[in-house]
Design goal:
This protein has 179 residues and is an alpha+beta fold. It has a single domain, classed as Roll (Pnp Oxidase, Chain A), CATH 2.30.110. Helix content is 14%, strand content 31%. The chain has 4 helices and 11 strands. The strands form 3 sheets. The protein has a 7-stranded antiparallel beta sheet with strand order 2-1-5-8-9-4-3. A hairpin with a 4-residue loop joins strand 3 and strand 4. It is globular and about 55 Å long. The protein starts with 20 loop residues before the first strand and ends in a 12-residue tail after the last strand. 33% of the residues are buried. The mean pLDDT is 94. Bound molecules: flavin mononucleotide (FMN). Flavin mononucleotide (FMN) binds next to strand 2 and helix 1. Keywords: Flavoprotein. This is Flavin reductase (DIM6/NTAB) family NADH-FMN oxidoreductase RutF. InterPro entries: Flavin_Rdtase-like_dom, Flavoredoxin, Split_barrel_FMN-bd. Its cofactor is FMN.
């Protein structure tokens, strides 16, 4: 089939990223924790595991990640889609998003930001490199502890822009020379 021109501002919609995440942060002043939806992330290293996340300077989470230098990347499954969208369309300083969505925060082991109990996996992270923050809002995180339910085929959400998500879940297993 012949390809059609895609507006440059929509190129990102073709590069389906990894699963949509719920990034939690603790309030540096000791108030309630916050949670934002995040789909712009990338793996950068195996060991220690490094993950790049792009957090807009307009998000309340940006200031809290800057201040605390730590967060949790929680991985929701498709059944949490309404909560995922709600966390991406409200700001933590104005709304208690845990109360808004019914999601349950619980203490993590290594960082002050909370786990979300309903998510099937949670990665505790500390900021490893701030060198790209001023230019790209890109925080390089180091995963310091990782937790996951032993589900065989989690149905994760993958953002395709404008409220559209792909749902992953089926698995192909092929010979591989790398991890
Ligand atoms: C599906 C989805 C994906 C999103 N991905 C990102 C992202 O990668 N980076 C970002 O800065 N904001 C992203 N957002 C927007 C933030 O989640 C949104 O601005 C949120 O209100 C920020 O919350 P906060 O101000 O409490 O931190 C996304 C929103 C949705 C719905």
């Amino acid at each position: 089939m012949k390809k059609q021109s895609v507006p440059l501002a929509e190129a990102y919609r073709l590069l389906e990223p990894g699963p949509v995440l719920l990034l939690t942060t603790a309030d540096p002043r000791g108030g309630r924790p916050n949670v934002m939806t995040l789909s712009w992330h990338m793996m950068m290293e195996f060991e220690p595991p490094l993950v790049g996340v792009l957090v807009s300077g307009r998000d309340d989470s940006f200031a809290w990640l800057e201040a605390n230098g730590e967060c949790v990347l929680n991985i929701p499954t498709a059944d949490l889609a309404p909560q995922v969208v709600a966390c991406g369309n409200s700001h933590g300083r104005r709304r208690d998003k845990f109360r808004l969505t019914g999601l349950t925060p619980s203490p993590a082991s290594r960082v002050g930001a909370p786990f979300i109990d309903e998510c099937y996996a949670s990665l505790e992270c500390v900021v490893h490199d701030r060198g790209w923050v001023a230019r790209y809002n890109l925080f390089v995180l180091e995963v310091v502890a990782a937790w996951a339910e032993p589900r065989k085929r989690p149905r994760t959400l993958h953002h395709r822009g404008w409220g559209e998500f792909a749902v992953a879940g089926s698995v192909l297993r092929l010979p591989s020379a790398m991890k």
